[in-house]
Specification:
- This protein has one domain (2-143, 185-211): Gcn5-related N-acetyltransferase (GNAT) (Aminopeptidase), CATH 3.40.630.
- Helix content is 25%, strand content 28%.
- It contains five helices and ten strands.
- It is globular and about 45 Å long.
């Protein structure tokens, strides 16, 4: 199992993976979770929104056979992102817009049956570790997330330093809360220990060669 980091510079290597990711996102968020996403392409069964632009960074987790089983999206907070544009009400005070603060969204991992289980699924821990590794590489100091209250206990048990950005609120049919996850090497070490992921998960493809 490994995590590929997809950026604007290496995206041409991952055209097929990204197409599959958007189809998986449609199945997870539109069909399984029942979200009504206004920009979803129902005809082609793809979930793409206004934040899937050239600046978005994707982490793709693949199993040992190279099959895509999950992903997440990272967006810089000094540009348009979910908290700034759609959910500023989840934040007490002003939304953070510093360049070293990023937002994680569209996190999912599929079980063997194809059902989304997020952090609980096999691969959820590995994708979380890959996210922290990518954040350290990109110089990120905080990752903001909108978390379902059902997943909050697992987030807290993972050992991340977290800080609520506001009070829990109802969005659609879910109770959610906006959080900041602190990014540092100690947090990565604790996450690896608590989720039993001893090695590095992140793989980066640059230009025409792979860097392990």
């Amino acid at each position: 199992m490994h995590v590929d980091m997809v950026t604007h510079e290496n995206r041409h290597h991952f055209s097929n993976d990204l197409h599959q990711m958007f189809r998986q996102r449609y199945d997870v968020f539109e069909e399984q979770m029942g979200w009504k996403l206004p920009m979803a392409d129902h005809e082609n069964r793809m979930e793409i929104d206004q934040f899937d632009d050239k600046d978005a960074v994707y982490l793709l987790i693949k199993d040992d056979d190279g099959k895509l089983i999950g992903s997440l999206r990272l967006l810089q907070a000094n540009k348009a992102h979910l908290l700034s544009e759609l959910f500023p009400n989840l934040v007490e005070g002003a939304v953070q817009r510093d360049p070293d603060v990023w937002e994680c969204s569209r996190f999912y991992v599929l079980s063997n049956s194809g059902k989304a289980q997020g952090l609980k699924a096999g691969g959820g821990a590995e994708l979380s570790v890959g996210m922290m590794e990518a954040a350290l590489m990109l110089g990120i100091s905080k990752i903001n997330v909108i978390a379902n209250m059902n997943t909050l206990p697992m987030i807290l048990r993972s050992g991340w330093g977290t800080m609520p950005l506001g009070l829990p609120q109802t969005v659609g049919n879910e109770q959610v809360i906006a959080l900041s996850i602190m990014v540092n090497p100690v947090g990565l070490q604790i996450l690896r220990q608590r989720r039993n992921v001893p090695g590095s998960m992140l793989r980066i493809i640059q230009k025409e060669k792979e860097v392990a």
